[in-house]
Amino acid sequence: MNESTYGLQSWIDRLNQSDLPALAAVVQDLQRLTEQETASVQQLADVLLRDAALTSKVLRVGNSSYYNPSQETIKTISRAIVMIGFDNVRLISLSVSLIDGLLDRAPRQQLQELLARSFHAAVQARNISGYVLSKHEEEVFIAALLHHVGELAFWGCGGEQADRLGDLLDRGEPDFDKQVEQLLGTSFRQLNLGLIKSWNIGELASLAHGTASLRDPGVRSVSLGVRIGAAALNGWECEAMQALVKELAEFTGILEDDAMQQILASADEAVDVAATFGASRLCKLIPSTDPEQLRLQHEQRLASQLQPDLVLLQQAMQDLAMMASSRGDVALMLETLLKGLHQGAGLERVMLCVLADQQTTFRVKCAVGEGSEAWRAGFVLPADPARRADIFSYVLRQREALWMGVPASYNLEELVTSAIRQRLGRGMFFIAPLLAGGREIGVLYADGRTTGRALKHEQFVAFQRFVQLAGRCLEALTRRS
What we know:
- The structure is a single chain.
- The protein is α+β, with helices and mostly antiparallel strands.
- The chain is built from 24 helices and six strands.
- Among the domains are: 106-146 and 201-304, no CATH class; 310-480, Beta-Lactamase, CATH 3.30.450.
- The chain has helices spanning 8-19, 21-35, 41-49, 52-62, 77-84, 86-103, 109-132, 137-145, 149-157, 159-170, 176-184, 188-198, 203-207, 217-231, 239-252, 256-276, 280-283, 291-304, 310-325, 330-344, 372-378, 391-398, 418-424, 457-480, and strands at 349-356, 361-368, 380-382, 402-404, 429-436, 439-447.
- Strand 5 (429-436) and strand 6 form a beta hairpin.
- Helix 20 (330-344) packs antiparallel against helix 24 (457-480).
- The radius of gyration is 25 Å and the shape is elongated.
- The protein starts with 7 loop residues before the first helix and ends with a helix.
- This is HDOD domain-containing protein.
- It holds the Pfam family HDOD.
- Residues 20-215 form the HDOD domain.
């Protein structure tokens, strides 16, 4: 098999033709039945009966207490359709096929984690849709379950390229999305959408990848379910989850406390669903709602958090010092700067904003850390050094590094405007001007918002040193040009 597949269409062809043909065929057949208003019980039974193992597993799930609380024994697919419904049998069939198609081989940890997140998102989405839709909850479940189908397929069937990307992920390489595009020739988002369209999974699944259709209650339910499944990995009390609880309450018309309880109940249900579908190994990867388990998970997250790497930090500083005295280039300097701050100093999110649009705005030049791709896509801030209207303009005018969120900077809190808080969140951060001699280049920002850990004095010292070294590099480059 060719292990250097590159580009969106090449990956879709590879996954369809050599790695996942059986799963793709089942998905497409089941989807076609849904689109036929006159689809019969026998037509669905015929699709499933082509695969004896699939038939057996569908019957086992159909006889579970989750789907068949009356415990009346179901021995045939036709009886299952009558007892638990056409839509539920289709949902079970597709879910079981996905598990078998991906987990039967030696599954990578990334695949198991993403599949667990997908099941969690699917249950969340289906239960949310129950508030706003009178039908089609099953379609919402499947759209959320298959939201990351391209990425799932890659981790399941990507071979040597998946091994290489997994190594990069384990090492915490900055700008992971960029690494994905360089290695695959496409993004996971494009691969997800491409496979959804190739397999003809359905309009709702396709629409859920855009933002233009969020007015559609089905699409909104899928979107919320997917985002809740992702946010839960950072803890039920994290900032992103709090925002989602509020959004869910507004969307469904229930109180925020009730919305939180709905989310927690759905997480517990997701564990039951994964076990019912024969994927018990996924259960432990779905965030627990048990207080003791929450405490243990929190401790495990703390143990795996980004930690300062003094060897890497010192090497980055030495490299920048050499660049300041020899011929280097801006791209290499910025890569070294961000790597030193992120992996060396252990700063979870780092961003460089440069003056742009004839020095009237700050725009993101580069950024690393969880969630930083959103900054690169849409962070724009008016620049007004003369009036010092906000903290970005203030530090550029004052030409000093600041540690915001500590008593020494409390008098400047009003300069952290609501627009900045909306984009960056609340809490401590470092901020400093980046200068090339006397020339204003932009502003460097760093925080620890991913986990909410407090920043440390030694990190601020390192931050200031990196700002100085970057300034010397830029001044040297300016002189040579």
